[in-house]
Amino acid sequence: MKPAIVIAAVLVLLVLAGPCCFFTVHQTEYAVVTQFGKPVRICMEPGLKFSPLKLLQSVHKFSNRLLVYDTPDMECLTQDKKNVVVSSFAIWQIQEPLTFMQRVFNRRGAEARLSDIISSELGSALGNTPFSGLVNTDAEQFMLPEVVAPVLERCRQRAEADLGIRVVDLRIRRINFPEQNKQSVFKRMRAERERIATKFRSEGEERSMIIRSEAERERSEILAEADREARAIRGEGEAQAARRYAEVISKNPEFYKFIRTLETYDKIIDGQTTLVVPTDSELMKLLAEGAGK
Question: Which residue segments constitute the domains of the chain, with CATH numbers given?
Answer without folding.
Answer: 3-63 (no CATH), 67-176 (3.30.479.30), 252-289 (no CATH)
